[in-house]
Write a structure and sequence with these properties.
259 residues; YojJ-like (1; 2 domains; seven-stranded mixed beta sheet; 11 helices; 7 strands; elongated
């Protein structure tokens, strides 16, 4: 194929591969996996050079290494592969766009919109008393795997209930509260911690867990710092730290209205 023989399907192929590589880079940027990926890339370049120079013995050995290495790559990059598939399943889920629910149900905001204010008022009290809190609000994905790690509650969202959960002597205050379908589904839940190496050292475990769950899923998370009482909002693996309660309410409201 010459340069002038490039077809439209070839352009689409190049764009698709470039997009997948970009998404992969975004997932592993700032993590240890990036260094591993660069090492694998350098090895592949070396392997192609060996084959181009027709070095039979070296090429045969490296061919066998590459064959076995594919299994090793899947094992090493298992968290990144899982995050990538979750991203496709939650953010680009065709079922959510073309389901019967989307056709016959209205696009008005869900019941969660009515419970944003009591949630934010509880966070305001946590901020004043410097009570640490981590609240996750689901969107398309219900996070059932993470709900099962905590204590099932399945109760209506209320300020007194949230304050009792995150009371410092409560056995559930160290974990995360997961809110799904306008209810507090579970408390004391264990979340994945962000592996982003670019995060500042002062970012605590609650904030890393909030970033981790929003990296792996389409959920949003609210954090109240136990040390400073500052409010933070996390979405898409990115955090906005030290915000006011008014800004927090606005960000939560916008997020739940988009689902």
């Amino acid at each position: 194929m010459t340069f002038l023989d490039i077809r439209l399907i070839d352009v689409i192929d190049i764009v698709l591969v470039a997009y997948l590589m970009y998404r992969l880079y975004k997932l592993i940027r700032g993590t240890v996996a990036l260094n591993i990926f660069l090492g694998i890339f350098a090895f592949i370049i070396f392997w192609l050079m060996i084959k181009a120079l027709n070095m039979q013995l070296s090429a045969t050995i490296l061919d066998n290494v590459v064959g076995v290495g594919m299994i090793a790559i899947i094992i090493v990059f298992q968290p990144e592969i899982r995050r990538f598939l979750l991203m496709l399943g939650t953010r680009y889920n065709i079922r959510n766009h073309f389901s019967f629910d989307s056709i016959f149900m209205s696009k008005s905001p869900g019941m969660m919109s009515f419970y944003v204010k009591p949630l934010v008022r509880a966070c305001e009290d946590f901020s004043k008393s410097k009570t640490g809190a981590l609240i996750v609000i689901t969107r398309q994905s219900e996070l059932l795997d993470y709900v099962e790690t905590g204590e099932l509650i399945n109760a209506v969202i209320s300020k007194p209930l949230l304050k009792s959960i995150f009371f410092k002597n409560s056995p559930l205050h160290d974990g995360a509260v997961i809110i799904s379908q306008s209810k507090i589904k579970a408390a004391g839940c264990i979340l994945p911690v962000s592996q982003n190496m670019e995060l500042p050292k002062h970012v605590g475990l609650r904030h890393r867990a909030a970033l981790g769950i929003t990296e792996a899923t389409d959920a949003i998370a609210v954090v109240v710092s136990e040390e400073t009482g500052r409010l933070s909002f996390c979405n898409g693996g990115k955090g906005v730290f030290s915000i006011t309660s008014e800004e927090l309410e606005k960000r939560i409201q916008e997020s739940v209205e988009k689902q």
